[in-house]
Design a protein that fits this description.
The protein is of the alpha+beta class. Helix content is 32%, strand content 19%. Helix 10 packs antiparallel against helix 12. One of its GO terms (molecular function) is cGMP binding. Belongs to the protein kinase superfamily. AGC Ser/Thr protein kinase family. cGMP subfamily. Its EC number is 2.7.11.12.
């Protein structure tokens, strides 16, 4: 039996148990690589490759005045092409729209003067050299030929259309101010002043349970001194967090949620801790989970899906403008408030990145994981736009497009691409299909939302034609799902859960001192 490399590659990335057994039928020699070591190698290699590409771009006079954020965008769009020895990369007199940077090997530049039959060698270009940069600006008539030398040459390439889609007019980019993230982060840090800082943990009384999981529970609680004032109290078992090495994720969740002030993101008011739990005092969204309503209805129509998707887009626009990626979009993490508006919850996988950074952590729900996460290429906000396309499909059909009984098989389906999905079988409209496919492009820089128009490109898509974005932001647009919330203490829109009989052990390593 031949082991598929991709199969094993993905098991190196995700901490999943094998669902099959492999037995040796002959004597075999097996090389073993620890998953964490493999991930560290991939991360360092990816970071080095990104830095090399940035350094290459900075050496090009046409691009060297651009800031690092713009250069990182270009670096991410570069494609690797190999040319064997003797191959013509460029022919004199041909028109061209591709820019080349030599990443390894050498090329020979030749030119035939008028009246000559033979080509004269002009120069040799090596690693770090570039050619064809004017093709990024306009149709370029090549004035010389470029030929790969032995044993071949590897080039980083970028075509003019991709450059324009990503960057637009280069003079406009040079004039842009990219200090937004820094300014917004300074502003958001000042927002951590706690609105309900007078409330203590002992002042809260549990009314009902809103959700349970391996981490702990979410309880609907009321402020004893004012019973009409209710919250959702997220109770996380400290020992479980330590056992699963999730301390950093929990700290990040608290920090990011404390800094967010958006009507499309669930508010975190303050946090507590004791020997057994850390607690997050959250806004109570009593309309229930989108997932529960989807489960009961089977699927949503375009009108409802459009509204939910638009709420998520507004949340993403807020987060991405502050250099935050979400990484855990799914119906279970979308709650409705009493007006039927959707709010993003559960920021355990969210991370602050900034414009020009990437991260290599393998995380997310299998059906929603983007290809670059599976392949450990490093990822950024583009994974959120991929997940947005997956969410649209699940809302319209009742199921995500890529699903299998085993996470590894799901990852294999994802790597086959969105074009393998039969949309007609699920009666997904052509316009919605078009948007999903643009959001779920295999190459992150080609996804709608990742190009020069940013997230506005998604809002302008034909599927959203006529949608009242201003009304959504002002919350004057009627929500398509109207849940009956009778009072601030009403938990009827959530499933019933058993009481918690499990008493976790104490945990006193003090990792949660900031709570």
């Amino acid at each position: 039996m031949v082991v598929k490399r991709r199969f094993w590659f993905m098991y190196c990335l995700a901490s999943k148990k094998l669902s099959v057994i492999f037995s040796a039928v002959t004597d075999v020699k097996v090389w073993i690589l620890d998953r964490k070591v493999f991930q560290q190698i991939m991360m360092r290699t990816g970071l080095q490759r990104l830095q090399d590409n940035l350094n290459f771009l900075k050496s090009v006079p046409l691009l060297q005045n651009l800031n690092n954020d713009v250069l990182a965008k270009i670096a991410d769009a570069l494609e690797v092409e190999f040319y064997p020895a003797g191959a013509y990369i460029i022919r004199q007199g041909a028109s061209g729209d591709i820019f080349f940077i030599i990443s390894s090997g050498s090329v020979k530049v030749t030119q035939r003067l008028p009246g000559q039959l033979e080509e004269d060698e002009i120069r040799i270009l090596q690693r770090g050299d570039y050619f064809g940069e004017q093709a990024l600006l306009k149709e370029d008539c090549r004035t010389a030929s470029v030929i790969a030398m032995h044993p071949g040459v590897e080039c980083l390439t970028l075509d003019r259309e991709s450059f324009k889609q990503l960057i637009g007019d280069i003079s406009e980019i040079r004039e842009k101010d990219y200090g937004d993230v820094e300014r917004l982060n300074k502003t958001s840090s000042s927002l951590e002043q706690q609105e309900y800082e007078y409330i203590k943990l002992n002042d809260l009384e549990v009314i009902a349970t809103l959700g349970i999981g391996g981490f702990g529970r979410v309880e609907l609680v009321q402020y004893v001194a004012k019973p009409s004032l209710t919250f959702a109290l997220k109770c996380l078992k400290k020992q479980h967090i330590v056992d699963t090495q999730q301390q950093e994720h929990v700290q990040s969740e608290r920090s990011i949620m404390m800094s967010c002030r958006s009507p499309f993101i669930c508010r975190l008011y303050r946090s507590f801790r004791d020997q057994k739990y850390v607690y997050m005092l959250l806004e109570a969204c009593l309309g229930g989970e989108v997932w529960t309503i989807l489960r009961d209805r089977g699927c949503f129509d375009d009108h409802t899906t459009r509204f939910i998707t638009a709420c998520v887009i507004e949340a993403f626009e807020y987060l991405h403008a502050r250099g935050i990626i979400y990484r855990d979009l799914k119906p279970e993490n979308l709650l409705l408030d009493s007006k039927g508006y959707v709010k993003l919850v559960d920021f355990g996988f969210s991370k602050r990145l900034g414009y020009s950074s990437k991260t290599w952590t393998f995380c997310g729900t299998p059906e929603y994981v983007a290809p670059e996460v599976i392949l450990n290429k490093g990822h950024d906000k583009a994974v959120d736009f991929w997940a947005l396309g997956i969410l649209m499909h699940e809302l319209l059909t009742g199921n995500p497009p890529f699903r299998a009984s085993d996470p590894m098989n799901t990852y294999n389906l994802i790597l086959k691409g969105i074009d393998m999905i039969d949309f007609a079988r699920h009666n997904v409209g052509r316009t919605a299909q078009g948007l999903i496919k643009k959001l779920c492009k295999d190459i992150p820089s080609e996804r709608l939302g990742c190009q020069r128009g940013g997230i506005v490109d998604i809002k302008k898509h034909k599927w959203f034609q006529g949608f009242d974005w201003d009304g959504l932001v002002a919350q004057t647009l009627p929500a398509p799902i109207q849940q009956n919330v009778r009072s601030p203490c009403d938990s009827s829109n959530f499933d019933d859960f058993p009481k918690d009989g499990d008493i976790p052990p104490d945990e006193s390593s003090n990792w949660d001192i900031n709570f």
